[in-house]
Structure formats: C-alpha cells, structure tokens
Amino acid sequence: MLETVKIIYQNKDWITIVFLVILIVLTVTKVVFNQRLFRTNTFFLSRKYLSIYFNKEKRKLLNGFQILLFSVQLLALSLLIFLANVYFQFQNELLNLEGYLVILFWVGLYFSLRYVLGFLLAYLFNYKNEYSKIIFDKSNYFNNAILWLLPLLIISVYSKYYNKLFFEITAMFFVFLLIVRCSLMLTMNKKLIFNNLFYFILYICALEIAPLIIVLKLTF
Fold it and tell me: Which residues contact residue 33 at a Cβ distance below 8 angstroms, ignoring those fewer than 6 apart?
C-alpha cells in the first residue's frame, strides 16, 4: 500500500495536467455547447432529449460536441485504467507518464477500430440508420457516465487517506453506470434488436468483442 501511495504521489504533477486539460475541454464545451452539455449530464435521469438531439445530429454524428466529449472520454478512461494498474499492478512497466500515454494510445485505438468497423459493417449490410441510432445512444450515455465519474476520479487521486478505497468505490460506481447504460440501451432499442437479431449478434461479436481482442493481443 505504501508503494502505491508513493507512486500516486510521484505522478500527481502530470495527473494534474491531465485533469487540467479535461477541465479546459469541458470549459470550451460549456461555452460553445452549454445547453447540450447540461442535457448530456442528465441523460441517465431523463431520456427525452436523446431523440431530439439525434434528429438534429443524425446526418453528422461526428460533430464538434462529440469530438470534444470523446477527448474527455479518452483522457478520463485511460486515467481510470492507469490508476487500476497502479493499485493492482497488472503491468509494472506502466506506472508512470509513459505508461499512461501507452494506455491512452491503446484506448484510442480500441474506440477507433470499433467506430470504423461499425460503419463499414453498417454500410455493407445496409443498416446505417439503425446503427447510427445505436451508436448515438451509446456514445451519449457513455459521455454521461464519464461526466459523473470525473469528481470521484479526482477524489481518488487527491484524497490524503484511503486512496485505494476511494478508487474501488469509483471503479464500482463506473461499472454500475455501464450496467445501467446497457440496460437502458436494450430497453430503448428492444424492438430494433429483436427485429434485427442477426445484426445485433454480429454487432456484439464484431464491434464489442473483436476490437478488444485485437487490442489485447497487440498489447500483451
């Protein structure tokens, strides 16, 4: 435990910079997309704005707002994985800034592979509209989860005592949010899923499992 605390203490300077970058991106997002950011932060509590924003953005899902929030996703999720590695030491060579950058690269590669493969399959099997709706809902619920995760992530890093306990609570809370996200996705799209069961199974295999296996194989 003392070794873990020492590692966290040594890494606080660059971790602070990571949080500062996240804060700057969120500040820019708030200035440019104030109402959109607020609505995103409440998607777990209210779903009505998902359809409204999808109808506005379905022709251009990769817009400025999503790009800004995606960068926050990458930075925060990579930091969560980095801290998990610090506390449980899965890979001892990834316990510094260079290790965080490696994690950031692989997390970015995973999401990029999933995004590209998804739209290629959607184009090949002619279900672009259905896929656009699912990917829109997923990305926005994940944005919501990351925004809720950030305060706990900050506490996990800067708490003077019980850092590991706070991190475990943070990780469990994040897993809980992912479960809620999956449940909401299945509930909202159950008709679409059951009417296109073959494509849903293909989606799970090709876009959820395959990119993860590829990244893990390349990493280890």
Answer: 64, 65, 68
Question: How would DSSP label each residue in 180-215?
Answer: HHHHHHHHHTHHHHHHTHHHHHHHIIIIIIHHHHHH
- Reading the block at residue 149, the tokens are 């995760």
Report d(CA 87, CA 36) in Å as an integer: 35
Query: How does pLDDT run across 169-193, given as a tens digit for each residue?
Result: 888 999 898 888 878 777 766 666 6
Q: Could you report the per-residue pLDDT of 118-164, keeping only the tens digit for each? A: 777 777 777 777 777 777 888 888 888 899 999 999 888 887 766 77
Q: Are 167 and 87 in contact (CB under 8 A)?
A: yes
Q: DSSP state, 94?
A: G
Query: For 7-29, what is each residue's pLDDT tens digit?
Result: 555 566 788 899 999 999 999 99
Burial class of residue 1 in the structure, from the number of CB atoms within 10 Å of its CB (0-12 exposed, 13-18 middle, 19+ buried) = exposed
Whether 73 and 143 have beta carbons less than 8 Å apart is answered as yes
